Backbone:
């Protein structure tokens, strides 16, 4: 009878330890998820700050390249019938605005030059 009791205690200890290990594993995974989320937020914030600083300090040829690259991407997304939120997402808005402004100035210039 005592032999069964010792075996039961061993099995119970093993089962309890595995449950404790599962809990520790779950806690570790939760912490890892929170840390990864925090790192992603920091990286995204740094990238946003870099983009904001870069537009003022970048050479004009890089800005022009980004404007036309953005327009090319927008046209490709429109051809592929993507969601409008994807097409006009946050990082593209500045370059789209620059393109619209540039295009408007060109149109005004051509209209004024044809009138004289």
Residues:
């Amino acid at each position: 009878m005592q032999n069964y009791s010792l075996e039961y205690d061993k099995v119970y200890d093993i089962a309890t330890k595995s449950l404790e290990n599962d809990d520790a594993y779950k806690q570790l995974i939760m912490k890892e998820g929170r840390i990864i989320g925090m790192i992603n937020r920091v990286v995204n914030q740094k990238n946003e700050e870099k983009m904001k600083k870069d537009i003022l300090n970048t050479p004009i040829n890089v800005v022009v390249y980004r404007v036309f690259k953005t327009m090319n991407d927008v046209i490709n997304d429109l051809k592929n019938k993507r969601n409008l939120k994807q097409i006009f997402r946050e990082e593209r808005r500045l370059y789209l605005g620059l393109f619209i402004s540039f295009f408007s100035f060109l149109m005004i210039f051509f209209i004024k030059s044809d009138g004289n």
